[in-house]
Amino acid sequence: MKKYMKQVIILAIFILLPLVFNFNRSFMTLLNMAGIYVVIAIGFNILLGYAGQISLGHAAFVGIGAYTTAILSTKCNLSFILIIPIVILISGILGFILGLPALRLQGNYLAIATLGFGVAFSHIFMEWESVTGGFSGIKGINPPNLFGYQFKTRLSMYYFILFFIVVSIIFAKNLIKTKTGRALMAIRDSEYAAMSLGIDVAKYKTIAFLISAIYAGVAGSLYAFLFRQVYPNTFDVGMSLNILAMIVIGGIASIEGSVVGALFITLIPEFLKNIKVQNASFILTGLLLILCVMYFPYGLVDIYRRFKVWLKKKAAVKDEGVKV
Amino acid sequence: MNKQALNFKDITIAFGGLKAIDSLSFDVKEGEIVGIIGPNGAGKTTLFNIISRFYKQDTGKIEVFGEDVSSLKPHDVINKGIVRTFQNVELFKHMTVLDNLLIGQHRNLNYNIFSSLIMTRRVKRIEEDAKKRAFEILNILGIGNYAYYYPINLPYGIQKKVELARALISNPKILILDEPAAGMNDTETIDLSNKLKELKDKFNLTIIVIEHHMPFVMNICDRVVVLNFGKKIAEGTPNEIKTNPQVIEAYLG
C-alpha cells in the first residue's frame, strides 16, 4: 500500500486537525461548510473541467438536495441512510433534465440556460410555501443517526462530512481514469474525433450533468444535516458563481484543485476578518480570479505543479554543473 | 473478384445552392487502397464527412459490405468497422498519447460505470489489457516512447502517426485517411506509404485515402477517383489517371 502513502498521510492530517487544535464552534462550522463545498466542487469539476460543459445553476441542485432532506426528515422521519439514496435519485433526474439543453447549446448560450434554471429553482424554494415553507424555510431536521449514534456536534459532523469527501474523491478519481472519464475528456477536446471513435456525445454529456448534479445534491443533503434548517436564499445565483470561482481558482480539470479551491474560497474570509477593509475577502477573491485567468489558467494547483518542474530543472542544472 | 467493401450510389449533397458533391457513384473492393484526388474544394473531405455521418447526403446511399448505412449515427459508424483520421489532426490535446489510444478502444471496453467507480478487479484487468494493446500498436508504428507525451509537444509527423495508431487500435476493416502525408517531407512520405502497405496486409484493411502528394498516391493506390467541383471526372489505375486529359486539365487549367 506504499502507493497510497501520500493520500493516507493527508487523510490522517485532516482526521487529527480538529482534535489537535480544538477549534471553536464557529470555525468548526466554517470547516464543515468548506467540506460541503469540496463535494460540490469535485462534482462541478467533472462537468466543467473534464466534460467541458458550463453550468451557472448548480446551486439549484444543492438546494434540491437540502430541501429533499429537510422534507423527508421532518415530515417522514426517514433515516439518512434512506434519505441520501432518494436525494441521489431526485438530483440525478433533475441533472438529466438540465443536461438536455446542453445537447443543443454550447458556451455562452448554455451558461444562460443553466443560469435560468438556477434562478427558477431559487424562486421555487421561495414561493412554493406549502412544500418549502417559503421564506421561513424548514426547521427541525433530525441529525443523522447511525446505530443509535447521533451526529449532533460540529465535530461529529466534521467526520460525517469527511467520510463523504473521501468517497467523493475516490469515485471521481476512478471515474476519470476509466472509460467514462476519458469519454468526457474526449468530448471536451474534440467532439468530432470522439464521435468517430464511437463515443455517443449526447449520452456522455448527459452523464456529466447527472454526476455533477448528484454530487451537488448529496452536498445539499449534508448542508441540511449540518445546520438542521434550510432557507431559500442560501441557494441563489451567488452560490453557483462561488462554485465556479472555486474551480477556476483551485484548478480546472483537477480533483486536487477542486479541494484546494473549495477550502480556499470558504476559509479566506475567516483569515481576512482582522483586516479593517469592508468585504476584503470579496476583493481578494476577485483579484485572484483575474490573476488566475491571466497567469494560471489551471489554477492554484498549477503553481505547485510548475514549482515542482522548476525544482527538477534546477536539480538537473546542478548535476550538470558538477560534471563540468 | 473481391467483394465490395464500400459502395457509393448516386450521392448528392448541397450547401445552400452549392452542390459540394454531385451524383457521385463509385465502389471500393475489399483489400483495395483507393485514392481520392482533386483540386481544393472538389468535395473530398465532404465525402469523408458523409461516410462519418457528420453530414447527411441529400440523395443517394452508402453501403458498407452490402448494408445501407445512411441512417447510422456518427458514433455507430465505427461499429461497422469504419474509422477515420482528420485533415488537421484531431487528437485529444489535453490527454496523453496513451489515453488517446485508450479512447480508440472505448467501445471494446466492456464494463459499466458503477464497476468503474469502485474499480473492481475486472475493470483493472480490462484497463491493463487495453494499455498493453495500446503499446503494441504504438510499437508497430515505432512511436512507443511517446506514450506519456501530450500531443501538443510532439512534431506534426508524429501526431499524424498517433492519429493513425488511434484509428488502427479499434480493429477497423475500412480505414479512411484524410491527407495522411500532409506536412511530411519526401522521405517521411515514402516511409508512410510503405508502412501503410505493411499495415494493410497485417490488419486486412481496406483503405480510402485523400492525398495531394502525387508520388504517394501513385505508389500505394490500386485505384484513383478524381473529383472536381463535386463530380467524378475520372476513375482508374494510377497510370490511367496520370495520362487522362481531363485530369490534367482540372489540375493545370
Automatic annotation (TrEMBL), chain A:
Domain of life: Bacteria
GO cellular component entries: plasma membrane
UniProt entry tagged with the keyword Transmembrane: yes
Main location: membrane
Membrane topology per record: Multi-pass membrane protein
UniProt keyword Transmembrane present: yes
Pfam families associated with the record: BPD_transp_2 (PF02653)
Keywords: Cell membrane, Membrane, Transmembrane, Transmembrane helix
Subcellular location: Cell membrane
TM segment ranges: 7-24, 30-48, 55-72, 78-100, 107-126, 157-176, 207-231, 243-268, 280-298
One function term, GO molecular function aspect: branched-chain amino acid transmembrane transporter activity
Listed name of the protein: Branched-chain amino acid transport system permease protein
Lineage: Bacteria, Bacillati, Bacillota, Clostridia, Eubacteriales
TrEMBL record, chain B:
GO molecular function: ATP binding; ATP hydrolysis activity; L-isoleucine transmembrane transporter activity; L-phenylalanine transmembrane transporter activity; L-valine transmembrane transporter activity
InterPro entries: AAA+_ATPase, ABC_AA/LPS_Transport, ABC_transporter-like_ATP-bd, BCA_ABC_TP_C, P-loop_NTPase
GO terms (BP aspect): D-alanine transmembrane transport; L-alanine transport; L-isoleucine import across plasma membrane; L-valine import across plasma membrane
SUPFAM superfamilies: P-loop containing nucleoside triphosphate hydrolases
UniProt keywords, alphabetically: ATP-binding, Nucleotide-binding, Transport
Keyword Nucleotide-binding: yes
CC terms in the record's Gene Ontology section: plasma membrane
CDD domains attached to this UniProt entry: ABC_Mj1267_LivG_branched
Gene3D superfamilies: P-loop containing nucleotide triphosphate hydrolases
Source organism, top-level taxon: Bacteria
Residue span, ABC transporter domain: 6-252
SMART domains, A to Z: AAA (SM00382)
Protein name per Swiss-Prot or TrEMBL: Amino acid/amide ABC transporter ATP-binding protein 1, HAAT family
